User: What shape does this take?
Amino acid sequence: MNPYQNIPSPSYVLEEEKLLKNLSLLKRVQEEAGVHIICALKGFSFHKVFPLVKQYLHGATASSYHEAKLVFEEMHVKAHTYCPVYVPNEFDEIQQISSHITFNSLSQYKFYKSKMRSDISYGLRVNPGYSEIETDLYNPASPNSRLGIPRDLLTDKLPDGIEGIHFHALCENTSYTLERVLESFINLYNPLIQQAKWLNFGGGHLITRKDYEPDHLIQLLKNFKAKYPNIEEIILEPGSAVGWQTGVLTSTVLDIVPNGDFPTAMLDVSFTCHMPDCLEMPYKPAVLSATENGKFEYNLGGMSCLAGDFMGTWKFENELQIGDQIVFDDMIHYTMVKTTTFNGINLPNIGILRKDGTFELLQSYGYEDYKKRLS
Assistant: This one.
């Protein structure tokens, strides 16, 4: 039976049972390694389930005032906040709703130093000097990165009031990549690590992917903690790992055009509006009804007027018909958070497929949502 058959199209559908499986694994790693795993909103902002996430993880991390406010209002905890640059008229409010604040540069630290408070723990983001991310768009640790302070701009002493060090160098990587990043981080920043109270190892830890080895991560973290007993808190902040393989984007075939080498099934969704990572990474998403050796091959085209609103071809056992459902897999992390209303195209619905098989529609959109984003 198709669990998505009666769900309105188009819809992002979070599957509760799959989310719980991810959260359980993350909680095991957190407890066995003795670290804090927090949810990165830039990758997973499905705030309807924040109360559930809070039962398993230690909180959430924000990269803007609005993300920090969402953490505070919907998870009811103070955020770990890192912004590449802070907006002056937002900083006081950010301090009200944050437990940790990380500065991206020494100039930002100096600018806000007079406002630093005793009830907040402050840190600096540094460039660890090593990354294995192949797509430059997603590589925060390149030599010319604007994110994080290079080693040559720091002395061997943490600035006054700074208790933590934050780095981020992963993107859907394994614990073995983290191990190599840590070697570089230690080589560069060992004197500063010895003075810190907490370290944030950033995101990109794809702990819930099938080929990930969580036990290796646990041992790696234990070994690091043993080497630096002064560190009171180690933080990991994955976003993808929380929402990995937890849901889909449903769509419907509205038309089939015969142009070109393959017919194109025109959908009621858009790659550029609703699945932008497919074009930015780029990557070809899995379609649940497609098969490797299907007899009928189609382009799947988005409904915007952008010429490049498509992503390759898929094969199907049967010819597609107008009205057929097309379901894109793994569309909850880093997809919902990037949607746009380009071309005036409506945003997909948002809902949850509960453990008992019932569907709960949480959000739908219309013209006013499009209009109020413009002027």
Notes: The chain has a mean pLDDT of 97. The longest helix spans residues 175-193.
